[in-house]
Write a structure and sequence with these properties.
alpha/beta; Rossmann fold; GMP Synthetase, Chain A, domain 3; 8-stranded mixed sheet; 7-stranded mixed sheet; globular
């Protein structure tokens, strides 16, 4: 924990330089900012209307590149219309929900946009989920149409008997282009879509900026994933402001997006930002570090989207004399950590880091508008970074019961104020929504949104991301719910109880999963292989704990919540922890006993987790 609360005076924003850059940027982008602000305020622009506008303005420009496919803005809009008109023929209306379980491909963007043109809502299911988590997300929202692609079919089929279906449910299947297989009971989208009308649907003009376009699933602080509401305003704001203003893209650019489209980074920071300036978006089914720069060359990409882990993976690759010989000048994303920020820019000759920080649940964001190093930028809306008790894991209050803000250079918990403009849309579950709110923070009656994240105040309204808190940690660019992992562990015989938390591994971003378990047998008798198979079946790969600690008991609070502070602090420290420790090394789906040599190799970054 000490690394999270250490005060730091470096990376503080210089006031004179801040004012200089702010003046220059405002003069350069004032017209676009006013245009975007007006579009959001008028509440008439939707994602569908942007697509139709760009189809005319940039008709012959390439909008989308995927494998051996490419689509102009005009062609993109026409394919979106075919899907929209087909969905309408099935009876889909504004407010209806379509569940989407697909991997990255052109059709994902067609479907998402078609849903938006109708005013329906796409429930964007994480394609990495399995078993109980997948079942939970599919059942969390209503909706009588489910779209499944061939890659996700097996995982979906395993939970299908437990999915809430009705006589009205329609199952749509997107097969691979070279495949003829379509399961019984499914409609073949590749067969029915080409014959649909390519004309703009009449529904587009009736959709408002504030209308919902998607449910994006987030792990939150406890329990199974929650459905966070994602509105057209998020896509519209990105289209007007992120691409042209913060990332400074033009219609000559190509943005490479290898991240999954069930997350907002790919949707908003990548695709919407590119689309809004008439730039091309290049897709990849799934991120491949070994093929990353080959893809950049293939698509002639001038920018790419990232989460912090991607940049570290690229930096961990052996140096190449041609590292600077790439077409990329700008990167757009979140999570580029300060310890590698400048090194990454220098090695790959990156000139602009359009870093962002925000939450899917609330329309507030920090952005590196002024292109400073080692910062997520600044936010124009009311926020506060408050003092935080790391041992008790809660904000510190003064003698009057109110929270207090940290000083410049200090770290604390980020809160956003929910005033008349800052409305927390929330989750589909009201209890989950209320759990994210703090009331009477600085005065009676005020309401603030709890980000669940620790940030450092850098001055000049700039902040630096430090870490997550509570029962969620981030690993492999994903939020991992400790409660969800604990539930999976606890049903495996002979585990009696478990406590899951994140621990730091040198040379990695985020926290790796670690589980302390209490069993009714000795570690030597424990079926480690069986546990691995159980975890693989029920959890996505990024949620499987890297470390196992066998304990005799787990200490709990008076409210029966396990005390994790000591467990987190001790981590897998070899000389400190006397309990048996096991580790799952990279590319090895097996737990082995952690010895001194393996521990030192981990500390010396000899393994690429």
């Amino acid at each position: 924990m000490s690394e999270m609360i250490e005060e730091k005076e470096s990376d503080i924003i210089d006031v004179k330089e801040f004012l200089k850059r702010l003046t220059e940027a405002n003069e350069k982008h004032q017209a676009r900012i006013e245009e975007g602000t007006q579009a959001l305020a008028q509440n008439k622009v939707s994602w569908g209307s942007i697509i139709e506008t760009q189809a005319v303005k940039y008709a012959d420009n390439i909008a989308l590149k995927f494998e051996d496919e490419s689509y102009t803005f005009k062609e993109f809009n026409e394919w979106v219309n075919r899907y929209a008109n087909y969905f309408t023929s099935l009876g889909v209306k504004k407010g209806n929900i379509i569940k989407i379980l697909m991997i990255n491909q052109s059709e994902y963007l067609f479907v998402f946009s078609a849903v938006g043109k109708i005013g329906a809502i796409g429930s964007l299911i994480n394609s990495d989920l399995r078993e109980s988590s997948l079942e939970h997300c599919l059942n969390l929202t209503s909706g009588n149409i489910i779209i499944v692609d061939e890659t996700c079919y097996n995982a979906f089929n395993r939970v299908l008997p437990r999915v809430n279906l009705s006589e009205k449910t329609t199952l749509l299947y997107l097969r691979e282009k070279d495949s003829l297989n379509v399961p019984e009971g499914y409609i073949n989208l590749r067969q029915v879509i080409p014959d649909q009308s390519a004309e703009n649907p009449t529904s587009t003009s009736s959709i408002k900026t504030s209308d919902y376009i998607a449910f994006v699933f987030t792990s939150g602080t406890t329990g199974m994933p929650k459905a966070s509401i994602f509105s057209h305003s998020r896509m519209v704001g990105s289209a007007y402001l992120i691409g042209a203003v913060t990332a400074e893209l033009t219609s000559e650019d190509t943005v490479y997006v290898p991240l999954p489209f069930y997350h907002t980074t790919a949707l908003g920071l990548g695709w919407a930002a590119a689309f809004g300036v008439g730039a091309a978006t290049a897709l990849r089914r799934k991120l491949s570090i070994s093929q990353f720069w080959e893809d950049i060359k293939k698509f002639n990409a001038t920018a790419f989207t990232y989460v912090g882990e991607v940049c570290r993976y690229l930096l961990n690759q052996p140096p190449n004399p041609d590292d600077k010989e790439n077409t990329v000048t700008t990167i757009i994303g979140n999570g580029l950590r300060p310890d590698i920020w400048k090194e990454f820019k220098q090695r790959f000759d990156i000139t602009r880091v359009a870093e962002f920080y925000g939450a899917s649940e609330i329309g507030r964001v920090f952005g590196n508008y002024l292109n400073f190093d080692c910062t997520v930028g600044f936010c124009v809306y009311p926020y506060a970074i408050v003092k935080y008790d790391y041992e008790e894991e809660k904000p510190i209050t003064n003698e009057n019961g109110f929270m207090e803000k940290v000083k410049v250079g200090e770290t604390g918990l980020l809160l956003w104020e929910l005033d008349e403009e800052g409305v927390f849309i929330g989750y589909t579950d009201l209890k989950s929504t209320e759990a994210k709110l703090f009331r009477n923070v600085f005065e009676k009656g005020d309401v603030w949104f709890n980000s669940g994240d620790l940030l450092r105040d850098q001055g000049c309204n700039h902040v630096q991301f430090i870490d997550r808190i509570g029962d969620t940690f981030r690993w492999k660019a994903q939020n991992v719910s400790t409660t969800e992992v604990e539930e999976v562990l606890n049903v495996f015989d002979p585990i009696l109880m478990s406590s899951v938390y994140g621990v730091k591994i040198p040379g990695t971003d985020g926290r790796a999963g670690m589980a302390s378990v209490v069993t009714n047998i000795s570690p030597e008798e424990f079926d480690l292989k069986g546990l691995v198979n159980h975890l693989k079946k029920n959890l996505p790969p990024y949620a499987i704990p890297i470390f196992l600690r066998f304990k005799q008991e787990l200490k709990a609070t008076s409210t029966f919540k396990f005390k994790k502070v000591d467990l987190k602090r001790e981590g897998y420290e070899f000389d400190l922890v006397k309990d048996p420790l096991y580790v799952m090394l990279p590319e090895k789906l097996v737990y082995i006993l952690l010895n001194k040599e393996i521990y030192e190799n981990i500390q010396n970054k000899k393994y690429k987790f």
